[in-house]
Design a protein that fits this description.
Length: about 290
């Protein structure tokens, strides 16, 4: 148990939080959705995603591999509803506690803004990171409705940390965000159609990334036919098989952190929660 967490439920196949084995993974949930601008409800993401994990078998047939990675579930961090900055600070502190234990963080959101807490801690530890950001949106606004810390600005804050960005599945953005991408040298874009038509080019690009990599998955990257319960549903997203290929390709890289955010559902067995849970389950299977 970390200092600032409580445990409502644990992800299936997680180990007891005693005798922590170094170089394994630690899960925390962040039940926070205070800056949400459309569908609320991602504060319940951690609980429905964990519950859905009990539907999977230890043998992962997709990858012909058993889930044998050691990982711990430390429960949810104590968020401060209505205060994004303080909540992200708690996430940063909690991730730092995990790094002290030599654990790599897996974050279950919650809204996307909470990724900044995790990425601040990891940038401090590793220096330059490549953030592979799977999302329908760029989240690159400098401010959103006057707010610097928001689900719509999170990747701008991450970029300010000095990270290279690879944005995958993009299909909604503002003219300002497109201008910003053009004005920088270290944001690579694979729109949803690029993924559908040129998966080989994407795989080639991801295979050649060097150095520590962080994966941030906004569930709205997946087509809303499969994952409708998200903060900002956007038609025309990625297929499950494409997500599997991307995760398998990335699993050969030096992955230092992973988050799956924006599952906005209050219903056990919700398809979005099942897909979010599967992405974490696949990642844990592949990363060993
Ligand atoms: Mn999004």
């Amino acid at each position: 148990m970390l200092l600032n967490t409580y445990e409502p439920w644990k992800f299936a196949f997680s180990s007891e939080n005693e005798d922590i084995k170094e170089n394994s993974f630690g899960i925390i949930g962040v039940p926070f959705d205070s800056t949400v601008s459309y569908h609320s409800g991602s504060r319940l993401g951690p609980i429905v995603v964990r519950e859905a994990s009990f539907g999977f078998e230890k043998y992962n047939t997709i990858f012909n591999k058993e889930l044998s990675t050691t990982f711990y579930d430390f429960g949810d961090v104590n968020v401060i509803p209505g205060n994004c900055e303080k909540t992200c600070q708690i996430v940063e502190d909690t991730v730092n506690e995990m790094l002290d234990l030599n654990l790599k963080p897996i974050i279950i959101g919650g809204e996307h803004s909470v990724s900044i807490g995790s990425l601040k801690a990891l940038s401090e530890k590793y220096g330059k990171l490549t953030v592979v950001h799977l999302d329908a949106h760029r989240d690159l606004a400098f401010e959103f409705i006057g707010e610097k810390y928001s689900h719509a600005t999170v990747m701008r804050r991450v970029h300010e940390l000095g990270a290279d960005l690879v944005q995958i599945g993009i299909r909604s953005s503002s003219a300002d965000e497109e201008e910003f991408v053009k004005s920088t040298y270290n944001i690579q874009t694979f729109k949803n159609k690029d993924v559908h038509k040129h998966m080989d080019a994407l795989e080639y690009y991801l295979t050649n990334i060097e150095g520590p990599v962080y994966i941030s998955i906004d569930m709205d990257v997946v087509d809303p036919a499969f994952a409708p319960s998200v903060g900002n549903p956007t038609p025309g997203g990625l297929f499950i098989s494409e997500m599997e290929t991307i995760l398998e390709t990335l699993s050969h890289k030096d992955i230092v952190g992973f988050d799956v955010v924006e599952t906005a559902s209050n219903k056990l067995g919700d398809s979005t929660a099942v897909v979010a849970s599967k992405l974490i389950y696949d990642f844990l299977t592949l990363i060993e």
